[in-house]
Amino acid sequence: MKVNPKNIHISEYNYPLPDERIAKFPLANRDESKLLVYRHGEISEDSFSSLPNYLDKGSLMIFNNTKVIQARLHFRKETGALIEVFCLEPIQPNDYVLNFQQTEHAAWLCMIGNLKKWKEGTLKREMEVKGKALTLTATRGESVGTSHWVDFRWDNPEVTFADILEVFGELPIPPYLNRDTEESDLSTYQTVYSKIKGSVAAPTAGLHFTPAVFEALLQKGVDVEELTLHVGAGTFKPVKSEEIADHDMHTEYISVSRNTIAKLIDYDAKAIAVGTTSVRTLESLYHIGVTLANNPNASEAELHVKQWQPYEQKEHIRPVVALQKVLGYLDRNGLDTLHSSTQIIIAPGYDYKIVKAMVTNFHQPQSTLLLLVSAFVKGDWLRIYDYALEHDFRFLSYGDSSLLIP
Q: Residue 250, SS3?
């Protein structure tokens, strides 16, 4: 009998992770990291540079091309108190690209460090951007859960908000690294194929790829495509409830081009996903297709994938048909790209539709990402993690990776 995913106890997804096993820095050469290979229940290890050897000619690999933004802004009050404003997602305008292009005002949903010292008033910082002097101000608005609306204003219309973040912002490395951001993180905490600004955390499985690995994939006959999911701070949100029914998944924003969807259809809706962000996007595409099969005139808001939607949908259509429905929606609306959002939680009991193999790092104990992996390997996650712990694999964002083929 299938367990209802809502009744899963997160305590069953715990394992001992000593601090010394968490990689604080990446290796000098990205593709020299270790690769755990899990194929049909067999476990072995290799170097990441050998990844293409384990993939079939004529398969399709999908990457998340999001780029991490320098989202942490620091202001010092006249009292001397240091306030950190961490930009999570754009509110006004709520489109990432448009927000980055703003020239005098932008509003973001932010986490605020040292909040108790910023009860009221406007924070100010004098700065020079692209040789132009300006004053940046931040004003706090309403709170939204544990986050806050913050209005940023600056007095030079020749400078965009993207310019300000580039000069004034700090790259937000994961909190569990327990260290300050260093200059080297500006390059090492980005994938070599990152393009679309918007994430506050890197899609870390992609950090292992190098031009040499891409060349080897090409030589092997593996096709590659990209999509975008902007990673929010919610990706680090621990599951604090005993049962996952009480855990609220964060919303993530996705965009997938018409070309990528058409390519997926050409490959019979079968893909190798690089990273859990690509996994969540690809699987969300299927559920968006089911929504469109039931309601071809669904609005963009109605295409949002709710947390438990996959487990509550009664209709089952073939993955290729679901993708064709998405393609039809784009064509009817004259769109080149699907823009949507997802709160999907992938947990044991989930039936994968599109992802047939995945490359992923080793995740935190009692995390939703561990649930996603367990669902993929039909509950065999602990054997994989025991092997990694016993064979000196490095864990979390800057750590080693695995190729999972159930």
A: coil
